[in-house]
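Continuing the batch. This is chain 6 of the set; chains 1 through 5 are on the previous pages. Same settings as before, nothing changed between runs. Recording input and output for traceability.
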Amino acid sequence: MKETSDKVEINDGHYLEIMDRLHVQMCVLESHLVEHPIANENKEVKRLIIKAIVTLVQAYQIVGGLAHDTTKKTKKKETNKRGNSKNNNK
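Output for chain 6:
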């Protein structure tokens, strides 16, 4: 994994992007590993694969909540800006 020293400014698109990537990984694990013959033969292997999927689902849910909270804050700021500009025009 690469390390970056530059701080990236997070925007709303980043939330959707990571949620999409998490979903893709969950689908790959599900379709290519869960029903693989080795996973079907070895319960411990299958358990660990399912555990990985569950962990990705949890990350997906957390990011979805963060995206929701961020969107609400952004909309609230935009509403306040519009309200302030209307008050300034009086």
